[in-house]
Design a protein that fits this description.
The chain has helices at residues 2-30, 40-43, 66-75, 154-160, 172-176, and strands spanning 45-51, 58-64, 83-91, 109-120, 137-143. It is an alpha+beta fold and 179 residues long. The protein binds heme C. Heme C binds next to β2, β3, β4, β5 and α4.
């Protein structure tokens, strides 16, 4: 009897585990899959280039589509339909693997490592809990060749989530001032 009860407990625990895993799967399915616009280097505005703030071994170049650029420049908001694309670059290191700085104290980009995309559309936040809401933006990460890397986007949402005063992006002032 005791044995059977404990086996039952094991099987309940197992089914709870399966339920939890299934829950993760459902959330992953609901995470919208974005596509990478093929012609963004020519059709988007390239508005920012610099060393990455939280990644010591990377540099970044950021592009915005016309909807995002026009919104930022008109009244500092990014309307639905906005798309931002960030090229993440590896940077030069010396023989010991230390990051090399140029004469102006900046890292020297050596190659494209990955491409990060944000797109904003109405209602895209609805399925997420409050601490992961980011003003209806969805995130995606592609390889340098443009293949979707299938990564979990939770960390993206967590880090961009606090930026409530700048449309949940880090470079709003730069976009507003872009040519
Ligand atoms: C730990 C914080 C952090 C995480 C995690 C993070 N970002 Fe960002 N993101 C930044 C910062 C800071 C910038 C500004 C440029 C820089 O210094 O890297 C940025 C810039 C961007 C931009 C350009 C628009 C803007 O906000 O200025 C895009 C697009 C972007 N990130 C997408 C992503 C995607 C996709 C992910 C997840 C795969 C992600 N980010 C994860 C901090 C983060």
């Amino acid at each position: 009897m005791t044995l059977r009860r404990s086996m039952m407990a094991v099987s309940i625990a197992a089914s709870m585990l399966v339920g939890a895993l299934a829950g993760v799967e459902v959330l992953a399915q609901e995470d919208r899959v974005l596509t990478l616009p093929e012609d963004y280097r020519t059709s988007f505005t390239r508005y920012y280039s610099g060393d990455r703030v939280f990644n010591e071994d990377q540099a970044i170049t950021i592009y915005a589509n016309a909807i995002a650029r026009d919104g930022a420049q008109k009244d500092g908001t990014l309307p639905f339909g906005s798309v931002l694309i960030a090229e993440l670059h590896t940077v030069e290191t010396d023989a010991d693997g230390a990051i090399v700085e140029s004469a102006v104290g900046r890292r020297i980009p050596t190659g494209l490592k990955a491409i990060a995309v944000m797109e904003r559309q109405a209602g895209w936040d609805e399925q997420y809990p409050d601490d992961l809401k980011v003003g209806d933006w969805e995130f995606e990460l592609f390889s340098a060749a443009g293949e979707n890397l299938g990564k979990d986007m939770t960390a993206c949402r967590e880090c961009h989530h606090p930026l409530t005063d700048s449309e949940f992006i880090f470079t709003l002032e730069h976009l507003a001032a872009a040519n």
